[in-house]
Every structure is written in structure tokens, then in C-alpha cells.
Design brief:
The complex is a heterodimer of chains A (about 325) and B (about 260). By secondary structure, chain A is of the alpha/beta class. Chain A has 9 helices and 14 strands. In chain A, helix 2 runs parallel beside helix 4, helix 4 packs parallel to helix 5 and helix 6 runs parallel beside helix 7. Chain A is globular, with a radius of gyration of 18 Å. Classes of the chains: A alpha/beta (about 325), B alpha/beta (about 260).
């Protein structure tokens, strides 16, 4: 793969703009039969907490039109087991690892980041302030610009690594949250996490998920995600963005780049087609080669010549 | 090795309304799969269902490259599979999951296979392994009525033990639950192992019976799966000694004592 796919997001240089999204790619090692991890722009780990976390009771997932709802509840092995058992293998495979971290409270986030600070093989930290499936922490931080700012500032002080903040599409004012994260020291913003949704069994009249609500993902949310990336890119033209939301094809990835994302994360499609991210890297290379363009030149093309006034009506 | 196989639909064999075998050509898969494993199946290009679905592998014939699934039509995906034209591509991710264990069952021993309705799905391939290992297997197949027992025909000529049918309404075989029919025979026959697959009430009842009779057992469990290879963590089952078992990677074959049935 040539340099034409390399992208820079602030302090983070990636070999290409195709990454995999947290919660949809395990710890990466589950995919080695399907993807050469070294060929990806990067992989975001399952959300790591200080202690192992069991997650929510089943049923945890259900299919919805062109997507799915999940309320896994951030089940993970904990940061120590990740460091000990997963990270060395990822390093050996040449993966660019982005550690996604979460906690119930500010000090938990900081503790996870500190536990990784001297670990070799972590390219960046992604702060999950947007998980809708836990009763504490997660989205509660992301939905308030004040809490976002306070948390990001504390984590910023705890790490020298590139810091990505994953934004919640459920925030009352996405642009305000994005600004708060950037002003508090986020190098990069990733968006969007899942949208809060619900499905009810018409026979039993009970929610299909034991948690009640869940996070909606898959192609169903793609237009919303594209709009949000476009909107944040417009409001914060200097902020490097990673676009996430229902990406399953090269066209989808190009759409996000055009909207203003410098890189993208493939999510739910990994469940359906475990080799999808590797396929998109290869397809993007062919696409760029055929047009003799660099991937970095594709970022934000949809922004050019657009009047900023259009955004007012889209504010939720 | 597991892979994202591109299979080809060969033929459908029908046992009754909405009950059929789907036979695919997937030579590498046929060579790799072992009894109890499953595949995540999709018909490419279909919008619904969006996610793949897990199907127990019913049989595999390495010599012809054929892989077979027993299917009951319950929704959009199974309906599409039932009507699939010959030659159509089918995505087959797998083989996935753990396997029925026979290694510690001695040659000449006798095992029991207890299946409810579509729970018959994983057992033709197990019978192939039993025959090779010289182990006899008694089949206990149950259902609500005669219709649910249509899959019995798939077992004609492959059961190297006795066959016991049971139906709730008594229309075919013994009247009553298959678990009770099994219980009455298991008291007299020292089964080396019990293999089971069926609906949740059957599993619950059978878990009690094998515990009372102190019979080692392996259940082919079912949970809604998003990915099938341990990533989405959607298919967890409440466990006895820890919070959850991940059905797709720690199972689907689980000893019943590892499952917290009261939480299901």
C-alpha cells in the first residue's frame, strides 16, 4: 500500500483513513483470520474500564431495519488484562491500536488512561463519553458540554498520547459538546456513537432488550452521522474528525471524507463481514490510484462553497 | 480454518411445510466443520435480514463438498432460504463455535441424543462421528405434534441405536414430553453421555433430569447472535460460576451445569 492513503489527524499519522470502531472489533485479535491488522489505519478496542466489567443481562441485541440495537453494557476484560494479554499480540501483528476507555466517574477514566500511559503499542486514546447503555458514566458525560470539558481536561493532563473524544449523537447540542471537548484539549473528535433507540415485542409488549433502550447502529444511522460530521466540520474547521456511522462500502467511507472526516471507523459492518475494513483499504487504494489523488485530498470536499446558514434548522 | 466462505445453493429437500434441508456446495467448509459447530449464514444482496443468522451445521460430506442445514421457516431470512434457486450464492462464515466431545467416550459405549423439533438440526453430523467412533446413539425426538416430528425422516438409516418418538398430543410415538420418555429409558440404560438440542423448556427439564440421574450432558444452546465469533457479545447466557458465557465462542455446546437456567 502506497503513501497516497496516509492521513494526518493532528498529532496522529495513520497509514490510511480506514479504522474499525470500538465495540465492533473486539480486541482486534478475533479478526486475524479475516483481516491483516497491519493494513488497517487503526483499530479501536472494546471500551476498557479499570476493572473487568460483566455488562448487561441478555437479551442484549436485536435486529432493526438496516441495523441493530445493542445494550451490551461495555462488557470488557479490564485494562490490566488488555495490557497483559492483548496488547503484546497486537504489537506483534503490527496493528495501530487506539485504546477506547470509559469509566463511571472522572477518576476512573483517568485511572484507565494512567494504566496505559507507559504501555508500548498504544497509538492514541479514545475517550468514550457517549455509551448509552450504562447507568453511570458514558453518555452522561457526553451529553453535557460542562461535564465533557471537565473530564477531557482531567484526562488531557494524564496522557501525552493523542487524545480522541468520541461524541454522542444524543447530546442536546452536538457542536457545543464538540467545542467543549476541543477547548479542553481533545486532539481529535470521533463521531457518532450509537443513537438511543428502542424496540418492543408486539406480542408481549415488552422491550426487546433487557436494558429497555439500546444504541442504534448500522446503515440506518448513516445519513444522520454524515450530517453530524458535516456540521461539526463546518463549526470547527481545524478539528480533525473521525467519521462513524453505518459504513459498509467504499462509497460510504468517501461520503464521510467528503463531509469533513479525515478518517473513518467501520462499525456494525464488521459483524456481518469480518473482512470489510481490509476490503475498504484495498478498494480505497484502487480508487485513489485510478484518479491519481491522495486520500488526504478527499477530506471536506462537500464543505467547499456551501453557505453555513443551512445548519440552523438541523440543530436538534 | 474459519473463513468467510462463498457457498453455492445446490438443492432443498422438504420434510413438511416450512421444514427443509438446505444443501450447499462449500468444499473447504465441509472439510473443516466438526459436529456441533455452526455457521453465520447470509444470502448476499438481501436487505432483510441485515445481520447474518446462526445455523447449526446438520451434515457435511467432504467427498462431495456438500454442507447441509436443517431449517424451519420462521422469518424473512429462512423464507428466502426455502425459496432459494439452485446456484444462488450464500455467504457462510465459519465453521464457528465449539464441538460435541466424543474423545473420552469409549468405543462400544451408548449415548443418548435428545432433540425437540428443529433441535434435531445438529445431529446428523454427530451420527456420522458416532458411527466412525463405534459408539451407539439412541435418538429421542419430540415435538408438539406429528408436524414437528417431520425431521425424523432425515434420520432414517443413520441412527445406530433405538429411535424413540414423542409428541405432546400423542399423534406420533409416545404421548408426552420427550424429556419424560428419555427419563424412563435413561433409568435403565447407563448412557455415557447425553447430547441435546431444543427449546428452552426442554433444556430446563432435561437439565434437571440429567442432574438427578448424574449423566454427563452437552446441550447445543441457542442465543441471538450478532456476529458469531465473540465480538459483539450479544449472545451471552447467564452462567453458574461467572456472570455470563459467550454462547458463540464458549459454546454453543455447553454442559448444563454451567448454565444458570433459573435466570433464563
Amino acid at each position: 500500500m502506497s503513501d497516497r492513503l496516509a492521513v494526518r489527524l493532528g498529532p496522529l499519522v495513520l497509514r490510511n483513513p480506514i479504522l474499525t470502531a470500538s465495540g465492533t472489533f473486539g480486541y482486534g485479535l478475533e479478526f486475524t483470520d479475516f483481516v491483516d491488522l497491519a493494513k488497517l489505519g487503526g483499530l479501536c478496542t472494546k471500551g476498557l474500564s479499570l476493572k473487568p466489567h460483566a455488562g448487561n443481562a441478555p437479551p442484549r441485541i436485536c435486529e432493526t431495519p438496516a441495523g441493530m440495537l445493542n445494550a451490551i453494557g461495555l462488557q470488557n476484560v479490564g485494562v490490566e488484562a488488555f495490557r497483559r494479554e492483548k496488547l503484546p499480540k497486537l504489537r506483534a501483528l503490527g496493528a495501530t491500536v487506539i485504546a477506547n476507555v470509559w469509566g463511571d466517574a472522572e477518576e476512573d477514566y483517568v485511572a484507565v488512561v494512567e494504566a496505559l500511559e507507559d504501555a508500548e503499542g498504544v497509538a492514541a486514546i479514545e475517550l468514550n463519553i457517549s455509551c448509552p447503555n450504562v447507568s453511570r458514566g458514558g453518555m452522561l458525560f457526553g451529553n453535557s458540554p460542562e461535564l465533557t470539558a471537565a473530564l477531557v481536561a482531567k484526562v488531557r493532563a494524564a496522557t501525552k498520547r493523542p487524545l480522541i473524544v468520541k461524541l454522542s449523537p444524543n447530546a442536546p447540542d452536538l457542536v457545543a459538546s464538540a467545542k467543549a471537548a476541543r477547548d479542553a484539549g481533545a486532539d481529535i473528535l470521533s463521531l457518532i456513537n450509537t443513537l438511543v433507540g428502542m424496540a418492543i415485542d408486539p406480542e408481549t409488549a415488552k422491550p426487546r432488550l433487557s436494558f429497555g433502550t439500546g444504541g442504534l447502529s448500522g446503515p440506518a444511522i448513516r445519513p444522520i452521522a454524515v450530517r453530524m460530521v458535516y456540521q461539526v466540520a463546518r463549526a470547527l474547521p481545524d478539528a480533525p474528525l473521525m467519521g462513524i456511522g453505518g459504513i459498509a462500502s467504499l462509497e460510504d467511507a468517501l461520503e464521510f471524507l467528503a463531509a469533513g472526516a479525515a478518517a473513518v471507523q467501520v462499525g456494525t459492518a464488521n459483524f456481518k463481514e469480518p473482512g470489510v475494513a481490509g476490503r475498504l483499504v484495498a478498494e480505497l487504494d484502487v480508487w485513489c490510484a485510478a484518479r491519481n489523488v491522495a486520500a488526504a485530498s478527499l477530506v471536506g470536499r462537500a464543505q467547499a462553497g456551501r453557505a453555513p446558514a443551512r445548519e440552523a434548522g438541523a440543530e436538534g | 480454518m474459519r473463513a468467510d466462505h462463498r457457498a453455492r445453493h445446490l438443492r432443498t429437500e422438504r420434510y413438511g411445510p416450512g421444514l427443509f434441508s438446505s444443501i450447499l456446495e462449500a468444499p473447504a467448509f465441509a472439510r473443516a466443520v466438526r459436529p456441533g459447530q455452526f455457521a453465520m449464514l447470509e444470502i448476499p444482496g438481501r436487505v432483510r435480514p441485515y445481520l447474518r443468522r446462526a445455523y447449526s451445521v446438520a451434515d457435511a460430506r467432504p467427498e462431495s463438498g456438500e454442507v447441509e442445514f436443517l431449517v424451519k421457516t420462521i422469518g424473512a431470512g429462512t423464507a428466502a432460504l426455502e425459496e432459494l434457486p439452485t446456484g444462488s450464492p450464500v455467504g457462510l462464515l465459519g465453521p464457528l463455535g465449539n464441538v460435541f466431545s466424543l474423545d473420552d467416550v469409549p468405543r462400544g459405549a451408548r449415548v443418548a441424543i435428545v432433540a425437540g423439533g428443529i433441535g434435531a438440526a445438529p445431529f446428523p453430523l454427530l451420527y456420522r462421528a458416532l458411527a466412525e467412533a463405534g459408539i451407539a446413539g439412541d435418538l429421542f425426538l419430540g415435538g408438539r405434534g406429528e408436524k414437528d416430528l417431520a425431521f425424523r425422516r432425515r434420520f432414517d438409516g443413520i441412527v445406530n441405536g433405538r429411535t424413540h418418538l414423542a409428541s405432546d398430543d400423542g399423534a406420533l410415538g409416545e404421548k408426552g414430553f420427550v424429556t419424560e420418555v428419555f427419563r424412563s429409558h435413561a433409568r435403565q440404560t447407563p448412557y455415557a453421555r447425553v447430547f441435546a438440542c431444543g427449546p428452552m423448556p426442554m433444556f430446563r427439564a432435561l437439565a434437571k433430569i440429567v442432574s438427578e440421574l448424574r449423566l454427563p450432558a452437552e446441550f447445543s444452546t441457542e442465543a441471538e447472535m450478532g456476529c458469531g465469533f465473540g465480538v459483539c457479545l450479544g449472545c451471552v447466557i447467564p452462567a453458574a460460576e461467572k456472570p455470563f458465557l459467550v454462547s458463540c465462542t464458549e459454546g454453543p455446546i455447553l454442559p448444563p451445569e454451567k448454565v444458570a437456567w433459573e435466570k433464563l
